[in-house]
Amino acid sequence: DIDKTALGAKGRNDGVIDHARLEGIYRTMDSVLGANFDRAAFERQYDELNRAAYHSVTADNQDFLAYICLVLNAKLIQFDEFVKEVRGGNLDNFFQFTRWVNSRMMINPIGSERLRQVHETVMNCEFSGDPTPFKSFRRQEFITTIERMGNMASDASVDEMLQQEITLTNEVMEMAKWLAARGCLLLCMSDKPSESACPDGSESADLPPLHRVETHLVGATIQAQLDALG
């Protein structure tokens, strides 16, 4: 898996990947909720729900978590109400949550048409077994990720690059080249959903897929150690 290894190294550069994801969520919230988006409340609720204690409902899935936070921010369901149901064992999976939202929308049809469209897309994806139901969020994440690749000047300091740009990891690249020179078959894989890795025809058609984006190579050199191996 190249995410947070070859690209955005864990403990060194991975924070920029996380910031790109959050910015994608913020843009999606702005698009759906407009002036009613309460960013401070979102940050509090996201931080609380992004923990193992809520994995029964979120399944540690960023699409599920972002959608839940959207619903809470829209006040279709209150945050305290949600937490009480989870802790009481009455709400223990995402399927239950979307049905709960569906009932609330029928009883109290508040919110924008955009919110209803998002909800219907999430439900349709859920029925089809798609693990990435919050499509609009993932499409924004793709854009905000590309905005953080190759965005720094080449003479920027290493610290600046690691804080503001998603970079390639030099140690991994040197190892890959060393292995390739010795006839090894190298496979790069990613668990990113396609919506976060490839352009969308309507929103980002002019952008390349992530694996075609150029960015800076940052890190220490291990070439001497590799050469010593023969």
What does it look like?
The structure is a single chain. The protein is an all-alpha fold and 230 residues long. The chain folds into two domains: 16-140, no CATH class; 154-228, no CATH class. The protein contains twelve helices and two strands; from the N terminus they run αααααααααβααβα. A two-stranded parallel sheet has the order 1-2. α1 packs across α8 (135-146). The longest helix has 20 residues, at 14-33. The relative contact order is 0.15. The mean pLDDT is 95.
Question: Keywords, please?
Answer:
230 residues; elongated; 2 strands; 12 helices; mainly alpha; two-stranded parallel sheet
Secondary structure blueprint with pairings:
Layout: H1 14-33, H2 39-49, H3 55-58, H4 62-73, H5 79-87, H6 94-107, H7 113-127, H8 135-146, H9 158-164, E1 168-169, H10 170-180, H11 194-197, E2 217-218, H12 223-228
Parallel strand pairs: 1-2
Helix pairs in contact: 1-8, 2-4, 6-7
**Strand segment tally:** 2
Poorly predicted tracts of residues = none
SSE string: HHHHHHHHHEHHEH
Q: What is the mean pLDDT? A: 95
Backbone CA Rg: 21 Å
Summarize the structure.
With 230 residues, this protein is mainly alpha-helical. It has helices at residues 14-33, 39-49, 55-58, 62-73, 79-87, 94-107, 113-127, 135-146, 158-164, 170-180, 194-197, 223-228; strands spanning 168-169, 217-218. It folds into two domains: 16-140, no CATH class; 154-228, no CATH class.
